[in-house]
Amino acid sequence: MFWRLTSLSASSPVESILDKENFTLEDLLDEEEIIQECKALNSRLINFLRDRAQVEQLLHYIIEEPSEDSDSKQTFKFPLIACEIFTCEIDVILKTLIEDEELVNLLFSFVEPNRPHSALPAGYFSKVVICLMLRKTIPHMNYIQTHQDVLCQLVDLIGITSIMQVLIRLVGADDHVYPHFLEVMQWLADSNLLEMIVDKLNPSCPPEVHCNAAETLYAITRNAPSPLANKLSSPSFVARIFGHALEDSHSKYGLVHTLSVCITLLDPKRSAISSPLMHYCRDQHMYEPPIPVNPETIKAMLPKLGDLLMLLNVSSDEKIFAYHIWRIEAASREASPEIVGFISVLLRTGNEAAEKELIRSGTIQEVLDLFFEYPFNNALHHHVENIILSCLESKNDTILDHLLHKCDLIGRFLQIDKQPILSAYNNLPSLPAAGKCAPRAGNIGHITRISNKLVQLGRSNNSIQAYLQSPNIIARQNKGQ
Questions:
Q1: pLDDT at residue 210 above 80?
Q2: Which strands form 320-322's sheet, in the order they lie side by side?
Q3: For the residues of 306-355, what is the DSSP string, one character each?
Q4: pTM score, whole prediction
Q5: N or C: less crowded end of the chain, CB within 10 Å?
Q6: Cα separations (Å) of 6 from 18, 32, 34, 40, 215?
Q7: Residues 126-178: pLDDT tens digits?
Q8: Distance CA 215, CA 212 (A)
Q9: Which H or E element spans position 187?
């Protein structure tokens, strides 16, 4: 009785099209229920779509830019539906594609340099390629290995985010581990793929290329240990990365993204998506485990510290940006916190050679000066606080003595406590705007937290306790009161 109900037993619109003597692929692509029928594994529909001629036409819709006189269906609807058919992951359709080299050549012809590469077809292309990586991994990787020019073409288009996603999948930076995974990763490491990606950090490249190249390198470091991650952290590649960072100091975006890659080499978890609890614990200094890093990686970074410090120095004639309360000089620009952030992570590795170089080069003194010179740059304050805490908790007494005596940390804190209201007479780059009252220094919260940490550590560290109870400090404290 149930099957006699016409409203339920009526054939689908797709079946109606398939019943016709002369129907086209476009007739099916125009039908709203085609994707639903594909997912339901409609055998008549799949047998039609698996035909080579139909697969080829689907690829043309995906990779080719529509002509100016094309209607909206040919411009938007048909390419979208064609892409969705492939991403339904129907084995026989993907098999028709991957087992025909001419069809795979047609698919990858999208990345050829003489073609247009607009964002919409690039997104369709990347979805199909990623689908092949996941479902037809071995033949797909075999194709890449025999057509190495594809790697170069993909890297040249790394500024397109969807193409970047293809590269991230290619380097194995996801949870999908396929047969012969390690062999493929070793082959990629032996190729020049990593060199090409790192060279996209060149200051001459546009910001979107810097951003996506850095994101791809983050993904490689998160996937450590792997042949690619090991190669990226080698001294030669560290030097190559720093070379791009320091090649043009006026390229702010290039410097920021390049330093971010260096930070990720020192602490791969920093680029991973962490839980809100992890961010809270990091901010409260409740979770700061030591970072195991290859000493050779750190050693390759140390000679560049002097050049980075030079980028922190800003001449007095630089442009001043106006704010509603304060005018803050260009030294608080985006690149400065990134440089100090790199120094913070470098110090947290606990590497003795790094600590010695930071002392010798005057780096700690320099970043401490920035902490007081720019009292409203909260991002900068956060990194400097981490640097100070790393020095205080270091097992190396030399860096602790340097911070307390040479840098006069407590004395400078007492000076701020004595005069917390900022004014134009402080001779600082941050000046009160005309007609506005000078507020309290914006870094007092950080100073309070560091001071509390000093008192806490003084209970267990004789050096800190002796310094806090020294006559000089007590006299300066009484004078401030």
A1: yes
A2: 320-322, 326-329, 431-432
A3: HHHHHHH---TTSPEEE-SSEEEEGGGSTHHHHHHHHHHHHHHTT-HHHH
A4: 0.83
A5: N
A6: 20, 21, 21, 21, 55
A7: 999 999 998 998 899 999 999 999 999 999 999 999 999 999 999 876 655 66
A8: 5
A9: helix 181-190
Tell which residue, 177, 155, 178, 175, has the closest CA to residue 166. 155
User: Residue 44: is its pLDDT beyond 90?
Assistant: yes
Cβ-contact 109, 115 below 8 angstroms: yes
* Phi, psi of 166, rounded to the nearest 5 degrees: -65, -45
What span, in angstroms and rounded, lies between the C-alpha atoms of 371 and 332?
A: 10
Q: Which letter does DSSP use for residue 98 in this model?
A: H
Six-digit token pair at 389?
């805490």
Give the span between the Cα atoms of 420 and 423, in whole angstroms: 10
| Alpha carbons 29 and 321: distance in angstroms, whole number | 55
Distances (CA, A) of 426 to 79, 419, 420, 421: 64, 10, 11, 10
The label of the residue with tokens 């050096």 reads: 463
Cα-Cα-Cα-Cα torsion 476, 478, 480, 481, nearest 10 degrees, comes to: 170
- H or E element that contains 196: helix 193-198
Q: CA-to-CA distance for 410 and 469, rounded, in angstroms?
A: 12
* Dist. CA 346–CA 85, nearest whole Å: 49
d(CA 268, CA 297): 13
Residues 132 and 184: beta-carbon distance below 8 Å: no
Element (H, E) at 155: helix 149-156
State phi, psi for 326 to the nearest 5 degrees: -125, 160
Element (H, E) at 148: none
Q: Are 410 and 470 in contact (CB under 8 A)?
A: no
- Residue 170 to residue 151: CA distance in whole angstroms: 10
- Give the per-residue pLDDT at 330: 41
Tokens representing 421 are: 């209201």
Query: Distance from CA of residue 127 to its chain's centroid?
Result: 21
Contact, 189 vs 141, CB < 8 A? no
Torsion of CA 475, 478, 480, 481, to 10 degrees: 180
Instruction: Please enumerate in sequence order all residues whose Cβ is within 8 A of that of 351, keeping only pairs 6 or more positions apart, or say none.
Output: 293, 295, 298
Q: How many whole angstroms separate alpha carbon 115 and alpha carbon 331?
A: 43
**Main-chain dihedrals φ then ψ at residue 419, nearest 5 degrees:** -135, 75
Helix (H) or strand (E) holding 432: strand 431-432
Q: Are 381 and 430 in contact (CB under 8 A)?
A: no
**Other C-beta atoms within 10 Å of 303: how many?**
12
